[in-house]
Amino acid sequence: MNAPPSDANLYARAGIDDLAEFYREKFVSNAVLHHQYFKPLDRFDLRFARTMWVYDNVPRNATVLDLGCGAGMLALLKRKGVTLTGVDLSDECVSAALRNGYDETVRCDLDALPFAGASFDYVVSLDVIGHIPAEQKDAVFAEMKRVLRPEGVTMHGIECTDRAARRSYDEMPAEELRRFIGIDGHVGLEEEDEHAARFRRFFVHVAWQPRYALCLSSEEFLKQADRYGLPFEDDFLEYLRSFSFEQRRAFDMAMGYVFGKISELNVRLPRSGLYTLLKASDAPLGPFYNEHRDRRELLELRSAETEVTCLDRSPHAIFDEGWYEPDDLPPVARWMKTRGRVRFQAAKVKAIRLDLTTHLPDLGQRRIEITFSLNGSPLSACTLFRYGWMELELRLPEPLTARDGDMFELEITADQTWQPRPHDGENRDDRNISIAVCNIQCS
Amino acid sequence: MPAASDNVPSDGGIKKIEAKLASLRTAAAAPQSWLKRTLNPAAAASRQGKFNLALVDALEKALAALRETIARQEIRLEGLQQDLTELRSQSAGLRESQEKELAQLRQEQRERIEQLDQAYREKLNQLGAGQSDLGGELRERIQHLLDEQRVCIRQLSLKTSEEAVLADRARRATELRLEELAQRLPERPA
Fold first, then answer.
1. Same structural domain, A63 and A190
2. pLDDT tens for each residue of A231-274
3. How far apart are CA A235 and CA B124, in angstroms?
4. Omega before A331 within 30 of 0, i.e. cis
5. Is the bond preceding residue A330 a cis peptide, omega within 30 degrees?
6. Cβ within 8 Å, pair A439-B155
7. I need a labelling partner for B184 at 20 to 30 A (CA). Which of A85, A186, A315, B168 fits?
């Protein structure tokens, strides 16, 4: 523990007494990150950029430890047959990660990992090291090295600081310190090369590259400007603020696409004082990006899963843009806009069964009319006038048989939508949603 | 009310009459000798006349005193009667006002009781309705949870059956692979 004593107890100085509770409030979510719900197009989403960096650097069937797993941002690695273990400070986070497909999750401190030495091929963390106080980092790194196999690689996405532009913790007045740490809990921000130097004390080979110098999500641009005071152009920020949900998603996809291309072309970005990706090992390191790039499972249907009976998770079902990403309500379900289509493969369809619900306010007065069509032919219609889940079974007058390679298309329409929280600051949810649907089966 | 002095009889006047009567009795009782009556009959007659006059005078004074006393008593009686009338009148007024107040009090009390009774009944009705609403809401929430549970269980069941299918396929593929590997192994020498 060689950390400067001035950094000691930064959480306490920021008024954070219960660390697990602080992180639970900040980072626990009901995000559905299970690999079965991952769409190929999501690989371009900036939200998954760091996940894709890890995905493309980890070989099939490796054993991976995710330090500070949160809700399970690395769940996609299960597509590669990785054995995935997660640890976190929060009970809710380890439960969420387990729900999202991790093989094992454990609640523990990062400097006391409950695993035998040399247990993992990879030890990975995303957005964790910036939350570890400087005086604890060496202990965490020592544990990291202990559980890593001798030839293993450790990979990290690390939040950084720029000392030329931002005051150190010691220089911050008490109120500024409280406000700064209260935003995300960053008590261990260091510059990119400081992180690298620290890793070099534990590993022979260390490589790092600044990221997010150019590509930020629309939400992150606004957060960095509003909360951390980063100087972006005012009119650009105002433009971002005016975005709808769909526009934000389109922006983030474009940013994610550029982020991916920077990696593919191995373009080295300048230091940004924001974020760095880092790899370290006692064995010689391979390429920084795409060392084990193999996206077959991401883009192609796996033969083993071709007969998944529920369309929600079937690789043979395509949910069009009329649906939002799945949410854990619970159960895991997709919210629909006014019209949603599901295209799926099946030899024959006799009936379609599904569960649906709505949270539309004033449902008693504003009943929702729902219609169902299959391959363009009206199938059924119903009216929702009470809350709760409704089970529907739509029987076809005569079974429909698919012609060669043809897909069936189930279309659902709703005559009303609403926005859950259109003006709720950071918790804004301005999606136009109508009904939520899950457990879609055809027989 | 009559003055306090009116209650006191005219003692001075009565005492004077008593004194006069005492002196007349004394004079009448005093025996007159035969000689005096014989020698001076005019003086005797005069003495008798004075006595009679004094008697009449005493009687008149007594009568006047009596009249005065009676007049006073009548005035006093009249005053008392007036007082009594006044008292009766006051008493009647008081009783009337008290009866009015009492009646008003009774009315107010009755109204208050009715109001309380009504409020109590309304409260009871509200409570009953609230309890009914609460019960309804609770039933609705339970139903909602049951629905949610049903859908979650269905989702889990579907996932489990999918996992089972995949696990079975993986097992069969592994077994097949093992068989293939076993066939490739050279036979053990006998």
1. yes
2. 899 999 999 999 999 999 999 999 999 999 998 898 888 888 88
3. 61
4. yes
5. yes
6. yes
7. B168
CB atoms near residue A428 (< 10 Å): 15
Do A60 and A188 share a domain, yes or no? yes
Classify residue B136: in a domain, yes or no. Answer: no
pTM of the predicted protein model: 0.76
Same domain, yes or no: A291 and A382: no
Q: Is residue B126 part of a domain?
A: no
Query: pLDDT tier at B159 (50, 70, 90 boundaries)?
Result: confident
Measure B164 CA to nearest chain A CA, in Å: 11
Average pLDDT, chain B: 84
The whole-angstrom separation of Cα A147 and Cα A141 is 10
Please judge whether A439 and B158 are an interchain contact, meaning their C-beta atoms are less than 8 angstroms apart.
yes
Confidence of residue A306 (pLDDT cuts 50, 70, 90): low
Q: How many residues does chain B have?
A: 190
Residue B67 lies in a domain: yes
Q: Which residues of B touch A304 (CB under 8 A)?
A: 166, 169-170
Q: Do B148 and A305 touch (CB under 8 A)?
A: no
Q: Which domain holds residue B19?
A: 4-102
Interface residue B164 vs chain A (CB under 8 A): no
Per the DSSP assignment, residues forming a β-bridge with A383 are: A369
Which residue of A lies nearest to B143 if distances are taken between CA atoms? A388
